[in-house]
Design goal:
single chain; 254 residues; mainly alpha
């Protein structure tokens, strides 16, 4: 019985703090303990979010942001994971790539935006590149770390049975590094969402970031919070999709 109620109990416990915060916010805003202009009541935000969603504008901006985010995420994560696994197997490649990757990883992404805009102009390729560049290094380091944690015994057995380098990567290193890779991709997705929204603040006329920034500039705070709600929902859904893939790609880990 307790096992059956486990998921529902986890949901209730997880929702407790947000519900308390929202209830306190609702009371404080309606009683004007806080300025309702800047902190509109959650009920007002929910109503505006629904209106924007039914009107189609919020759904359109959500789709635009999600498309940019997912394209950039795939373009950054796929080569990052591949190169990270290869560097984990090859010491020469690791020594050649690691210093450059470490140096570029610490460069603030927002500082690169003017250069990226010069290279790609104010179009979707610039926004997608910002996401891909940010995701690449997180995927690379998580894959490299996972590959380095694979037991040497497993590698020796694979080589003893005549497995080449690429077969060893596909059959031994990749499964062994998968938990670390998925954890890294979770972090990368959250970071990618921050990057795409920040980029849309400064260099876009569509998308959730542009919606939030424009609403702030005209003091339309309910619309601004509606955009923030949409970003939050998008991030939660994508995070759970990556987390759910762990059950398929790494079923031996609960």
């Amino acid at each position: 019985m307790s096992d059956a109620l486990g998921p529902f109990r986890a949901i209730l416990l997880g929702a407790t703090i947000p519900l308390i915060v929202l209830a306190a916010w609702q009371v404080a805003s309606t009683q004007e303990w806080i300025n309702p202009l800047f902190w509109p009541a959650p009920s007002t935000i929910a109503e505006r979010t629904w209106d924007e969603l039914m009107g189609g504008a919020l759904a359109t901006d959500s789709f635009v942001t999600a498309r940019r985010l997912l394209i950039g995420f795939v373009l950054g994560a796929a080569p990052g994971v591949f190169l990270g696994l290869a560097a984990g197997v090859s010491r020469v490649l690791r020594e050649a790539v690691y210093p450059t990757a470490s140096a570029l990883y610490v460069v603030p992404r927002i500082a690169m935006l003017p250069l990226v805009l010069v290279a790609f102009s104010i179009n979707d390729p610039a926004r997608i590149f910002m996401v891909a560049f940010s995701v690449f290094f997180i995927a690379f380091f998580s894959a490299l770390s996972g590959a380095e944690q694979v037991r040497l015994t497993h590698l020796d057995v694979a080589r003893a049975f005549g497995a080449g380098r690429w077969r060893t990567i596909a059959r031994v290193v990749l499964p062994g590094a998968m938990p670390s890779i998925i954890s890294g991709l979770q972090v990368a997705m959250g970071f990618a969402l921050i990057v795409i929204v920040g980029t849309e603040f400064l260099a876009a006329d569509q998308g959730l970031g542009a919606r939030i920034w424009t609403s702030y500039q005209v003091f339309d705070f309910p619309a601004m919070y509606a955009g923030i709600v949409a970003v939050t929902v998008l991030g939660v859904v994508l995070n759970y999709l990556i987390l759910g893939s762990k059950r398929i790609l790494a079923p031996w880990q609960r």
